[in-house]
Amino acid sequence: MRTPMTAVEIAEGLEKLKGWKADDDRSLTRELKFADHNEAIGFVVRVAMAAEVLDHHPDLRIVYNRVELVLSTHDAGGVTAKDFDLAQRINGLLRP
Questions:
Q1: Of 19, 22, 23, 36, which one has the fewest beta carbons inside 10 Å?
Q2: Using CA of residue 37, residue 40, residue 45, residue 51, what is the dihedral sign?
């Protein structure tokens, strides 16, 4: 079992992670808007493949062209380095 990060550690990590925020220090969240539904679904498929490689799976919500991501290490009961690793990979999937 991993140890959850403290609020200070999460805040420090978020300073280096564009677009993400903490939700009560229990998860990292980000909302993205795409041109249309197909673009949103394509992004989610890429996220799913990255998550599988890391064996760490986000909570996803898709509403037409909007994707909401929630990262938390459930067995640790909060945010861990694993969540930051996945968030960085997800950011890398975004097209400039």
A1: 36
A2: negative
pTM: 0.93
The residue segments making up the domain with residue 68 are: 7-93
Residue 52, CA distances (Å) to 22, 31, 46, 83 in order: 23, 21, 10, 13
> What's the Cα-to-Cα distance from 86 to each of 46, 69, 82, rounded to whole Å?
12, 11, 6
Residue 50 lies in a domain: yes
Q: How many domains does the chain have?
A: 1
Q: What tens-digit pLDDT sequence spans the chain (96 residues)?
A: 578 999 999 999 999 999 999 998 899 999 999 999 999 999 999 999 999 999 999 999 999 999 999 999 998 999 999 999 999 999 999 976
Q: 68 has which bridge partners?
A: 31, 61
In a domain, 22, yes or no: yes
Q: CA angle, 40 as apex, 61 and 43 as ends, to 5°?
A: 95
